[in-house]
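**User:** Everyone, produce a chain:

**Assistant:**
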Amino acid sequence: KANLLNNRKRLAIMITSIVLTIALAITGTVWYFTRNTPAAFTVFNSKSEVIPKAKAGDDTDGVVKSLENKGFRTKVIDEFGGEKKGNFLRYENVKPGSKVSTKIVVKILRSKGPGVPAKGVVGASLDNAKKIVKSMGVPVKLHHVPSTDAADGKIVASSPMPGNAVGKDGVINIAVGEKCDGVPVDVFGLDKDKAKDMLSSKPFSVDLRPKFSSAKYFGKIVGAYPALGTKGSPKAVTLYYG
């Protein structure tokens, strides 16, 4: 009986020790993550806060700090804009002064300075493209160039090219396609055979010739003679492909 009682005491002590060890481990883990990853716990302790007011040109770091002080997580996205490089442009997914849950990751657009966005200009209608490029705060020059019927009234080219910042001249040039006599500019980058077929209805003969170019333009149109976008009535056009 004495041995049985001793065994039961030992078992009880062992179970108590195990329970205490597990409890301490859980407490320590919670304390660590509470100290080191507060953002992870905002999901469980979220509340609603007012989005701080901010205007274009404000200091981006200041906007981020004011949001984080309210318990929001933030994501900064760089985008071309008319403000000085590094300055605040706008919120992407919330409105200033609105009250939203702190669970939301607030997306902040930060200026990269003026440039032509990778999307939204080339291929867009003239009206839509003009709104974007004029927001860059630099002079914009418009050029009308020959194009295929499909590109009539649409932006077919830009300088700088899409995804690039404005150069030293500080000007954005955009070319809008129009149905007129000449060498369509929008065959650039097309498959050589497709480009030739597209021009088969034009009043000039078309010849294809290879030209050294980068690998991404292999088999695609990289130039022409007369040059792409040239107005007039040529008797023959040579298309160069990579």
